[in-house]
Amino acid sequence: MRRLMFEGCAGWLHEAQGTTGVVLCAPLGHEAMWSHRAWRHLADDLAAAGMPVLRFDYPCTGDSAGACDAAHFLGRAASSIVAAAAQLRALTGVERIVLCGLRAGASLAVQAAEAMHSHPAWQGGVAGLVLLAPVVNGRAYLRELRALHLNWLNSVGPTETPAAAPADALDVLAFRFTADTVRELEALRLDRGTGCPAPRVLLLDPWPGATSATGALAQHYAQGGVQVEVAAFPEYSGMMQSAEFAGVPAQAWRQLVQWLARIPAALPAARWSMHGALHAASLCVAVDGVVEESVWLDARRQFGILCLPRDAAPAPVAVIFPNTGGNHHVGDGRMFVTLSRRLARLGVVSLRLDVSALGDSPCTPRTMSIPAIYSPGPRADVSAAVDWMRARGFRGIVLAGVCSGAFLSLHAALANPGVNGLVLANLVKFRWDRADDRSAGKGARSWQGWLSAARRSGNWQRVLHGEVRIGPLAAAMARHAYRHATERAAFRLTRLRGGEDLASATAYARAAMRSLNERGIRTDMLYGSEDMGLDEAQLRFGRDLEALAAFTHITVHRHGCMDHALFLAEGRQIFCDQVVKHVVATLDAMEAVGDGLPQAAKVC
């Protein structure tokens, strides 16, 4: 894989020697996060079959330039696909271009192909289209997104009502569709287009049947004389789920590679004008008022984006953001991108890190699980990243993570004396045991979370309508109660015996916090007021967290409108502001004591 940047878009070139090149057109929002692993491995598979591939982030998404709320997003995204095709042709010399899109990315691929088909610079247009679960009807797509977000809010969102999205905009998990994007999606109807801008089309349909919109689109294209192939996509649901569970479709990707391999070599190669296409790409680029450098560290096992001030000398403190769950380095809601650029404009360097098993690191596996994310390997990866940043001359390293990223940060700090500060949001576990391997993914939540869900009338209506099964919920609550009772009993028995048994998860957590405090590591712990992480902390440190009261370098912050994954804008803002506050306080303390690292100050 070769990192590149073109027209403000960050991307990856998967090189191969073939004459047919493929541009991958990603889905939008949470679907892009969830399918990232599958998308990356599809690019690898196509390149292994001899087809050069370019996958990239649309403007205002991922690592690309632009603010998340920029206007005219869909038009800019379609134009960026055309630019990506030009880039691929210029860099590899391919003779034919195929656009392959997933969900809304498939719809954008059609729009880009239409633009290429009608533009004189693209004589011949594209050689084919691959449309995977395409969004055929924009209104139906928006209804699906609204239902998804509402279901999430009713299930695990905080009781405190979040701020509404701006007028006519739509929040979907951690991502916002602006009002103009919503209007453009409402007008989208692929099946009412005048024709198909490609001679060959492959459609994969997750929901085949008489009412399938994908099937209707295939019929529409076939009536226009296009060579159309339609197949089922049963692996779609396994791919389109939270990234720590999401799979890589083996059968579908093989089918796609085979279909592309059958594109006839005799098809006339398009002769295109490539004005403005880049023939080389720097690993260090200016973007949004900062400088970002693509870096490989830890013997090139890990990938990251180093975000630096554009003009000023960097501060002596740097921040590392480990992955959250199975997500790649941009973070939900693009949080780590916007936060790292905010820090750089304040003069602070940060690293958006992909540990070796995740994201765009060179050798990521095709499967992932929660136990793998919490395993010793990723913890060691974060510690290695600390050493790498230290070697670049930074005197202070702050680790800032969410959920599993908080866990990795905690354990890197316990293992590595090079860590000087922690910002931990919704830390769920202080230690990961075999019992956690068995219970991972079983929908754990706090007592406050259960009570909050029970107070919502909509959830009881879902139970009455059969949409929610009460049995699994009761079983989960029983497991929760049993775990609390047994762990409290074990800890009390240990204390009665006069021991400090580190085999007890509670004793381990207290020893860990004591160690951080004794080393002067300033630690900010952020929790949603109903978060299961707070429930865990109360189990380890007491209902009022009284066991932490004597630790002067550790501060706990509770927030009513902070959901667990920071999908809500309020939660992301709280985290980002706390990271900035933490870093500024660290720099102020360093300045106060002169050379050397400061003793941490308690800042609320």
Structure write-up:
With 604 residues, the chain is an alpha/beta fold. The chain has 3 domains: 2-133 and 234-261, Rossmann fold, CATH 3.40.50.1820; 138-187, no CATH class; 286-431 and 444-454 and 508-593, Alpha/Beta hydrolase fold, catalytic domain (Rossmann fold). The protein is built from 20 helices and 19 strands. α4 links the parallel β5 (96-102) and β6 (128-132). It starts with a strand and ends in an 11-residue tail after the last helix. Mean pLDDT is 89; it is low at 271-281, 446-457 and 600-604. GO terms for molecular function: hydrolase activity.
What is the C-level CATH assignment of the largest domain? Alpha Beta
The fourth-level CATH homologous superfamily of the largest domain is Alpha/Beta hydrolase fold, catalytic domain
Tell me about the largest β-sheet: 9 strands, mixed
Oligomer: single chain
Globally, the shape reads: globular
User: What Rg is obtained from the alpha carbons, in whole angstroms?
Assistant: 25 Å
Q: Based on the coordinates given, report the CATH architecture of the largest domain.
A: 3-Layer(aba) Sandwich
What share of residues is helical? 40-55%
Beta-strand segment tally: 19
**Mean pLDDT level:** 89
C-alpha end-to-end distance: 44 Å
Low-confidence stretches: 271-281, 446-457, 600-604
Supply the number of helical segments. 20
CATH topology of the largest domain: Rossmann fold
Keywords for this structure?
Putative hydrolase, 41% helix, Rossmann fold, plasmid, 20 helices, 3 domains, 8-stranded mixed sheet, Hydrolase_4, hydrolase activity
